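User: For a reading group we're discussing how well predicted structures match intuition. Take Lipase. Before you show the prediction, I'll give you the sequence so everyone sees exactly what went in.
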Amino acid sequence: MQRLILGMLLMVGQSINPLAAVPVEYVAVKSNVAYSAVTALEYAMPDDTVSYGADPLQTASIWFAKGPFARESKLVVLVHGGCWLNAYDIKHTYALSTALAQAGYAVWSLEYRRTGDAGGGWPGSLNDVEAGIQRLTSYAPKSFYFENTVVIGHSAGGHLALLAGGKIAELRGVIGLAAITDLAEYSRGQNNCQQASKGFMGGSVSELPEQYLQANPITQPLHKHTVLLQGDADNIVPVTQATALKVPLVMQQGAGHFDWVHPGSPAFQTLLLELKTAFQLDTATQ
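Assistant: Thanks. Here is the predicted 3D structure of Lipase, as C-alpha cells, for the group to look at:
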C-alpha cells in the first residue's frame, strides 16, 4: 500500500510540473566555468516544496527521480553554497537538482537562513540544515530513509553538510564539493568569500575561539563515508582546504569553483561517479 501511495504521489508531483516530462539538455562545457554560466542555465521547477520550520526560508524543495534509470529510493540531500550570504539563494542550484533528478536520483534541496537573515549565521544556518535533513524522514508517506541518503554540499554549503552529516551515522555518505573544511584558516584569507566568514561567525577567530572550534569541520567528527571533490583551479576555496581533512579526495584537473554545480562540466560527471560509488557502499558497518 505504501508503494502504491508513493507512486500516486510521484505521478501527481510530475503532472503539476510542466517541465518534468521534458528533460533539460545540458551542453558539455569546458572546465572552470563562471558563476554567470551557472545562473544562465535552464532548469525544471521542483515537484514539491515543504517547510521544516516556521521561517519562510526553512524549506526543502523536492525533485523526484526521472527517466528510465529512476531510483526513487536513492536520495540526494543538496546544501547550496554562496559564502553563507543571503545574497545567494537556492535557485542557483536548480540546474544541478534538475540534472541529478534526470540522472535518476531524488533530490531534497535545502534552503536555509544565512548571514543577513534573522536567525542566520552561526549556529542558526547549521541548525536549519540539520532540521531540514531530519524533516525528510517525515515526508509523506515516509518515502525517504537515511540509509538511502547521501548529503552533498557545495562551498559554504559543503561546510554545513560536513558538520551536519557527521551527526547522522545512519546516512550512506557525505560528499563535499569545493567544501570549506578549515573555517579558522579560511577566515584569514582575503577574497570576498573568505572575508564573509567573520560575518557568518559574528567575529574573528581571536574573538571567538570556542565558536570556531565548534564550527570547524577539521575539529569536529565527520561521517565515516566522507569524500571531498575539489578543482585544482578553484580561486574561491583553495586546494589547501581539501587537503586539510584526512578523508578521500578526488582532485578534478582544471576545474574551478562553480564546475560542481554546472551539469555540463566534466566535474559533474565526476560527481555522478562518486554518487554511484556512495550508493554501492555497504552500510552494514555504519
